[in-house]
Amino acid sequence: MMFRLEILPAIVNFKFKCDTREAHVFSLFSFVAHLSHFWLTQGGAGCMMAGMKIPPYWVTEKRDGCDGFVWRLRGVSYRSLSEARARLEERFHLRSEFAALRGVDDAAVNAHRARLRALDELSENEYSALLLEPMVDKVDEDNIITRNRYGVQVLNSTTLCFVDVDDFPLSLGDRLKGLFGNKISPEEKLLQALRALCASDDLLGARLYRTHNGWRVMLTGRGLAPDSERMHQICRSLHADQLYESLCSRQQCWRARLTPKPYRVGVTGYPCPVDSESASSLQAQEWIQRYESACRGKSVCRLVDAVGCRMQSDLIELHDRMTGAFVPDAELV
Question: Where exactly are the structural domains of the chain?
Answer without folding.
Answer: 56-119, 135-332
